[in-house]
Task: structure prediction
Amino acid sequence: MVLAWTGVGHHLSPVSRSLLSGVAIVGAAFILSWGTELAERDIPRSLALIVLALISVLPEYAVDLHFAWEAGKNPEYRAYAVANMTGANRILIGVGWSLVAIVYYFKHRKREIPLDPSQGLELSLLLLATIYSLIIPLKGTLSLFDVAVFFAMFLYYAGRAAKGERHDENLEGVAEILDRRLSTAGRRAVVAAMFAYAGYAIWLSAEPFAEGLVATGKGYGVDEFLLVQWLAPLASESPEAVIALVFAFKGKGSTGIGALISSKVNQWTLLVGAIPLVYAISLGAVSPMELDHRQKEELLLTSAQSLFAAVILSDFSFSLREALILLALFLAQMLSPWESVRYGFSATYILLAVVMLLASKQRRKMLWWALLLRTGSPPLLDSTVAHNLHGNVSIRQHTNVE
Result:
């Protein structure tokens, strides 16, 4: 903030600008996460996860929408907007989801994280958004029609989540101290102040961070597309990943995965929808964002990975083996940035998703449930899924979980 107010930041090298503004973004995101934890006292759990996901990915929104705004003035930035969005989504699943299961296993020696039935809302919307996203590379544009579809999905998601039940979660650390020492009115005032303060810091930091990365790539001969795709999301996605890992470390694996699923739904609906909207406003015309060949490949690969990940979770459990498969595939495709390889990994993700659907009646039920625009878990759960969800409690196969 001081560097921005005094104008000193403009005289720093691109590397220094990116580093300092990136640290500011990470710090602000942690302040936002503490505020969100406090807000859980006043709003339903599903809505709290949406708020947590929205706030923790605010840095990602700030950076990506900056690129989308600049793309309306300079066509070169269209590639950066797509690069940052696809990189962030693939890192979130390939690294974020996987690390939660790995940390959960090494800390608690449990190979499987059972998902709460209420997370069927997120899974249904993720499946729907992913299936629609597969159309975008085929038509080659991000248009205002896509904005309407993705925004409608997100608003429906938020509306359903707001009707959920409240859960009294045990707070720890900074959030617990503030909750213990403040009255209800004081807590709400502090939450509002934390959101405003950290949001302002992110707003100041987004442009120097994004522009510093582009200038660094050009100055050092590094492919700016790859730099924006992988380095920028590491800073903008790190707070939400750390929060989810803390949940896993404390034995709340389902909450950790739930937060990351919600983040994925937010990015795959609200963020993707906001890109062409901001682009059109900046351009000053009702015009779609045209995608070049490379951008279509990246979007196809991201959609294919999202489909595979959603199918994995559609049996309401996430195992260590599945996490390692996601991580291995992500690392392999990240280290092989060539056209034929991207198409190969896209086909691999889709093929694996189809195989898993054919092999699991429960996963097919969940997919059909999503296609029917239903949310929550299907009414007929397999007995093994019911056991995973409820531990050793006996539950009849025909229990209506929703």
